[in-house]
Write a structure and sequence with these properties.
This protein has no helices and 5 strands. By secondary structure, it is an all-beta fold. It has a domain of 57 residues. Strands 4-3-2-1-5 form a 5-stranded antiparallel β-sheet, with no helix packed on it. The chain is globular and about 50 Å long. Pfam families: Agenet (PF05641). This is Agenet domain-containing protein.
């Protein structure tokens, strides 16, 4: 059963990170976009880099629990970097 654990909501088209818990991917995060939010609270997402298993040139789309979604980390621009 998939229950929301936080009150973060994501909007359609928003870029997110998806936490994957499947064998071989446990602890991995993949960038995706929110396609829609379903009435039951789940989200339909489309990965930016993962493709279907059917050798089709289409990116993988799946339905995930809200607790598997995270906002993208902040991008920090650095002008100078010094090493002592």
């Amino acid at each position: 059963m998939c229950l929301p654990v936080k009150k973060t909501s994501f909007s359609r088209g928003q870029s997110v990170e998806v936490s994957v818990k499947e064998d071989g991917f446990h602890g991995s995060y993949f960038k995706a976009k929110v396609v829609s939010q379903l009435d039951n609270g789940l989200y339909v997402i489309k990965y930016d880099t993962l493709v279907n298993d059917h050798n089709e040139p289409q990116f993988l789309t799946e339905t995930v629990c809200p607790k598997e979604l995270h906002p993208l980390p902040l991008v920090i621009f650095v002008r100078r970097f010094l090493v002592n």
